[in-house]
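Much of what follows relies on a compact textual record of a protein's fold. Think of the row as the fold of the chain written in a discrete alphabet. An example makes this concrete, so a full record is given next.


***
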Amino acid sequence: MNRLNSLALFVLLLSALIYGIIEWRSASIEQDTLIVDEQRPDFIAEQLQSKIFSDLGQLSHTIKAERMEHYSDLEVSYFELPNYTLYPQKKGQPWKVSAQEATLYKDNRVELKNQVRIKATEINSLIKEIHCKTIALDLKTNIISSEQAVVVVGKDFTMYGSGLIIDLNTKQMTLTQHERTIYKKHDES
């Protein structure tokens, strides 16, 4: 009888252990599913095109992107291949900003990453293009900043440095660390 009690106790403990493992794994799977559900976007837009206007009715900026995912709970939107056109608050020619990806936060701050390109549309602009890895863009003030290395391509020069602040409204640019500038006169035919 002693052996039978031991065997019954062993089967009971083994059953409890198996039941506990099954319940634990089931709870773990439900938690993983809950996390995945929380990470799903509220909506997705393909081939996005949008125009944003200021309170005074002036065109502030436009955005085109291959794909946009909006997350209401996180209050962010993610963009793939975004192309912004920024219009200065005072009259002037717009600037174009493109990248591989961007994140728009609720305070109208955008972080653009990977192959960032800022291009002047004004024909006689001293600065033609700026290239860097990442930038921060404030859509309220039209101020662009970066702590990364930048390449500034202008009329007859290319400038290398790091740390950049640009106010698109006043057309003022500050390069916090200048490394070198290469001057080359371009032939105009």
Residues 2-38 form the longest helix (37 residues). DSSP finds one helix and eleven strands in the chain.
